[in-house]
Write a structure and sequence with these properties.
Keywords: Hydrolase. This is Alpha/beta fold hydrolase. The structure is a single chain. The protein contains 14 helices and eight strands. By secondary structure, the protein is an alpha/beta fold. It has a single domain, classed as Rossmann fold (3-Layer(aba) Sandwich), CATH 3.40.50.1820. An eight-stranded mixed sheet has the order 1-2-4-3-5-6-7-8, with helices on both faces.
Length: 292
């Protein structure tokens, strides 16, 4: 099953949007209330191709390459969380989204959480899929920084394959097609030039000034679903439990035999779980929808 086989049943578009001057790649499908999917560090929108068909049957789906990632523009400054948040809101404005459900994996969850806290009127519900940004573990930060830089600064595709397999409980989920996509992205000249801007959150001082503290999480008022893999290489289950305890009314789901990409590794379980959560959140009161 290839990426395009997954997407072929859909009336889907891949286009570029000017988000406050940043050329932003966007995959869109479906109609209804907007759901925006955000990937993790050094990731790209293909992280959600196993989810688009199921969600687009009911929702207007947007998967984007975040600031400095994928084929989106890569301005020359460190990509800290406020920068990601500003870019996301600029994308909302560019495509006419007043308020959206946000699905954030890893870094995407960190950004989604920040936007939900600071701009609650723009976020209808929040999904945190192995979300980052609540702890600063030097060993994990070093693993992310080292594995990414090695894969980007060397043309050896095996290093890209190793970086992608690091995310998965089952290496087979790091398909060769995904490896080829990521290898091509990693070796764009502007990606290579800006890799340290992209990895700035793996620097302890930078991370600590961006981190989401328990008091921050307690300000999240939107319906929140937390999904965590028990074999997540970048964070243990207590990290997810702490998020759940800090966010009032949140729902926590632990996936067995799952790593850092639950939406991809266990799409057959994740998709109905997500849709049930979105339907419930929508029924509880969604104000505003996409105009574009």
């Amino acid at each position: 099953m290839s990426i395009w086989t997954e997407l072929s049943p859909l009336d889907v578009s891949v286009s570029y949007v000017d988000a406050a001057g940043v050329r932003t790649r966007s995959l869109r499908a479906g109609s209804g209330e907007p759901v925006v999917f955000l990937h993790g560090t050094s990731g790209h929108l293909e992280a959600f191709t196993r989810n688009m068909s199921a969600h687009a049957a009911r929702y207007e789906c947007h998967a984007i390459d975040m600031l400095g990632h994928g084929y989106t523009g890569k301005p020359d400054y460190p990509y800290e969380i406020p920068r990601y948040a500003d870019h996301l809101l600029a994308y909302f404005d560019a495509v006419g989204i007043e308020r959206a459900h946000i699905v954030g994996e890893s870094l995407g969850g960190w950004v989604g959480g920040r936007v939900a806290i600071d701009h609650p009127d723009r976020v209808a519900s929040l999904q945190l899929l192995c979300a980052g940004g609540t702890v600063a573990n030097p060993e994990v930060m070093k693993r992310i920084r080292t594995s990414t830089r090695e894969a980007v600064l060397s043309d050896d595709v095996e290093l890209t394959r190793k970086r992608l397999r690091l995310l998965m409980a089952d290496p087979a989920d790091a398909t060769e097609e995904l490896v080829e996509v990521r290898h091509a992205i990693y070796h764009q000249p502007d990606f290579v030039a800006n890799v340290d801007n992209l990895l700035c959150l793996q620097d302890m001082e930078t991370r600590l000034r961006n981190i989401l503290q328990p008091d921050d999480l307690a300000r999240i008022s939107q319906p929140t679903l937390i999904v965590w893999g028990r074999k997540n290489p970048f964070g243990d289950v207590p990290e997810a439990t702490a998020m759940h305890e800090a966010i009032a009314g949140s729902q926590l789901e632990l996936f067995e035999e799952c790593g850092h990409w639950p939406q991809h590794e266990q799409a057959d379980r994740y998709n109905p779980l997500s849709l049930a959560f979105l339907d419930k959140s929508s029924a509880a009161g969604f104000a505003g929808k996409g105009r574009g």
